[in-house]
Hints:
The protein is α/β, with parallel strands linked by helices. It has two domains: 2-136, Rossmann fold (3-Layer(aba) Sandwich), CATH 3.40.50; 174-219. The chain has helices at 25-41, 63-73, 92-104, 121-158, 174-182, 187-194, 198-207; strands at residues 2-9, 44-52, 79-82, 108-111, 116-117, 210-213, 216-219. A five-stranded mixed β-sheet has the order 2-1-3-4-5, with helices on both faces. A two-stranded antiparallel sheet has the order 6-7. Helix 3 (92-104) runs antiparallel to helix 4 (121-158). The longest helix is centred in the middle third of the chain and has 38 residues, at 121-158. The chain is flat and about 70 Å long. The model has no long low-confidence stretch (mean pLDDT 84).
Amino acid sequence: MKAAVYVRISPTFKDKEETITGLAKSVESALEICRCKARGEGDEIVKEYIDQYVSGKSQEHMKSFTAMIQDAKRNHFQRIYCRRVDRFGRNLDEMIKTEIELHSVGVSLYFVEENIDTSSEIGRLVMNILSHVAEWKRREILENTQRGREELKRQIEAGTTDKRFGRTAKKINIRSVIEMKNKGMTWANISDYVNVSVPTIQHRLKDAGYKFDRGRVIKA
């Protein structure tokens, strides 16, 4: 049977180490888990679809997922392997609607870690239940985040904390950045290397007492 693999990891993994392929380690791990299962079932993987650092709250943001569903409807494959139900999405209505659409064109889903196969009615029922759980988890995360923000706001107003809203600023090695730039690297390449935006890098350099002159970084 021809099959596809779908892998998605959330934006919360964006700061995790990437491999030489540019994929996060959890993506490569999920791909290999699905590949092994497909081989064990005797299926041929014809394509792999990856949404890296993408939220599952809405399929409109899951570009590779959308492309996969379109290919499924074109009969490019008859089964989709996915690591877990919550990697398939976290929007209950969309997940159930998609499964029904795939079922109608003869495409089944196999969630490897949960051993759920929607080619059977029992498998479809279990997926339906776990889809409810996935959406409930997403709502719980949002509620916990909101409670945390409200508590932090209360502490800030009471003067009992020095914390502030927003992400902690990423650290960069000023000396390394200067060395890379003065050896001819572009700002874009440096940005990719240190995983910090160009404006942020330049702002940090200016704060540290440097300026830019003819493509070099020098003391102001």
